[in-house]
């Protein structure tokens, strides 16, 4: 069985919709098939605290032969575009990484380092600094935690992310208005207040929704290709 992790259902919804014989249980693991391959999808939540708890629960219930850590990331380089795919060489099993590159040849996938941050990195300058200091292509908030959990259990892992935002196409509002990490949800009142006081952010939010759909579609197509052949 191949396990696939995402931070949030916003990232996984297209892939979940493609599963045959789909079912879920009290552990909130979504099981199904892509062609003849068994797949288990679960959500880690955003950030290390949520991720550590949820991946521990997942591994108490499942023992996958491979785990693909997936979802969105923010680009730390100006040459990456929304929807571009990244295979993280610093968090991936080397043979799996090579095989994924072969499978995704036509997808123009990037290979580079992914940096896992303890906070949402909104500042363009901060992202550039992370890129310089860590030689990182992109930034996320969960992959390092997932990689540590896999290593402790000797489970082979592949890390693949798609760019949901870039220095040229950033978040449409401050991170605090978009998502409350402590409560793992968007606070509608907080976001609504920001939109009321910053009306131009409404159009940025609409554009961001389009970015998310594009990134999710690219990620889903790549994930289906990987699951079929790994």
Protein described:
It contains 8 helices and 10 strands. It is globular and about 50 Å long. The longest helix is centred in the C-terminal third of the chain and has 29 residues, at about 200-230. Helix content is about 45%, strand content about 25%. It is α/β, with parallel strands linked by helices and about 230 residues long. Strand 2 (about 20-25) and strand 3 (about 30-35) form a beta hairpin. The mean pLDDT is about 90. The protein has helices spanning about 10-20, 50-60, 95-105, 125-135, 145-155, 175-180, 190-195, 200-230, and strands spanning about 1-5, 20-25, 30-35, 35-45, 65-70, 70-75, 85-90, 110-115, 135-140, 155-165.
**Helicity, as a percent range:** 40-55%
What structural category do the secondary elements indicate? alpha/beta
> Could you say which overall geometry the principal axes of the C-alpha atoms support?
globular
> Strands of the largest sheet, in order across it?
6-9-8-7-10
* Number of H- or I-type helical stretches: 8
Quick one: biggest sheet? 5 strands, mixed, barrel
The percentage of residues in β strands lies in: 15-25%
First CA to last CA: what distance? 10 Å
Number of strands: 10
* H and E order: EHEEEHEEEHEHEHEHHH
Radius of gyration: 17 Å
- Spans of at least 5 consecutive residues whose pLDDT stays below 50 are none
Average pLDDT score: 90
């Amino acid at each position: 069985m191949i396990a696939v992790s995402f931070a949030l259902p916003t990232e996984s919804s297209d892939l979940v919709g493609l599963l045959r014989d789909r079912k879920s249980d009290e552990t909130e693991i979504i099981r199904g098939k892509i062609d003849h391959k068994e797949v288990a999808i679960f959500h880690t939540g955003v950030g290390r605290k949520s991720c550590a708890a949820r991946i521990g629960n997942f591994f108490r219930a499942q023992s996958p032969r491979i785990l693909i850590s997936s979802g969105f990331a923010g680009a730390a380089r100006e040459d990456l575009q929304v929807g571009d795919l990244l295979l993280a060489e610093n968090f991936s099993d080397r043979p799996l990484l090579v095989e994924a590159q072969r499978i995704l040849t036509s997808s123009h996938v990037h290979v580079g380092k992914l940096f896992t941050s303890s906070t949402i990195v909104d500042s363009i300058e901060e992202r550039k600094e992370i890129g310089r200091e860590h030689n990182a292509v992109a930034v996320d908030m969960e992959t390092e935690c997932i990689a540590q959990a896999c290593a402790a259990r000797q489970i082979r892992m592949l890390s693949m992310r798609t760019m949901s935002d870039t220095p040229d196409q950033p978040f449409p509002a401050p991170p605090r208005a978009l998502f409350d990490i402590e409560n793992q949800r968007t606070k509608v009142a907080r976001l609504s207040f920001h939109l009321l006081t910053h009306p131009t952010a409404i159009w940025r939010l609409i554009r961001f929704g389009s970015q998310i759909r594009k990134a999710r579609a690219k990620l889903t197509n790549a994930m289906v290709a990987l699951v079929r052949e790994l």
